Fold this sequence. Notes:
Layout: H1 2-31, H2 38-63, H3 71-92, H4 98-122
Amino acid sequence: MGTLITLHDGLSRTILFFTLICALWGFWRYLRGEGVRGDFWGALWILEGVILLQGLLGLAMVLMRLWPARGGVHFLYGIVLALALPLVYAYTRGRDGRREQLLYSIALAIMVGLTLRAITTGGG
């Protein structure tokens, strides 16, 4: 059980820092007049995968009756984080222009805040 908690806790910080890096990188790309390109798409795919892995670990913890400090809100943050990037993709219809770069960057900045809140409501 301790290993699962340690993994979940460590991944939360990984998500926080990786999301922050992607947000800053995205804003940098936007300011340079660039759109979403393959390297940025790859980073978004990796981030989404790590978020989904975090969710699976959280689900395993719930099945083992290891509840977060403020369960309902913590779960809500996790679900919103998992849906954020796919929703931006659906909203932009997969386009990759400069405007879309800004939208992803804004979403990532919001996700940084959501990740911080998820960490605090999880008791970590």
